[in-house]
Amino acid sequence: MGVLADALKDDAKRKAIVDDGMKVIDAEVASKRGFSGLAVKAAFKAVKAIRPGVIGMALDHLLPDFAPEIDPFYDEWKASGSGTLEQFFTKNDTRIADALLSVTDRRSKNAQNKAMKKAYDKLRPQGIEHTRAAMPRLAGLITRHA
Description:
Number of helices: 9
Number of strands: 0
Oligomer: single chain
Helix content: over 70%
Radius of gyration: 15 Å
Structural class: mainly alpha
């Protein structure tokens, strides 16, 4: 097990991670600019309107799949002994984004909710860019809960 996977075993820690993760997601969406930012904001708003609370539920359901993808990067950073986790995640943003998006891609293939699948498919081409941009906030979340 890794640091995030271990934290998820504790219900109170898991709830705190989900709550904090929601703040990270909200901040990331709010920070988006330009045409792709408008698309992200519109899709996010639509998904939240279709089913209130769905983002938090989705995050809670995805965390057990995200943890084994993130934990090796955390371990790699610890073993390196240099810099902050934010610096490490930023430097390795594409690798980490690919790992996280592999989870959501697998989940999307089996999604039952057509509106959510449509929103995901529409935004997926910019997925790497947006996920890479989230690395500083993701590292902060992990640092706070590790």
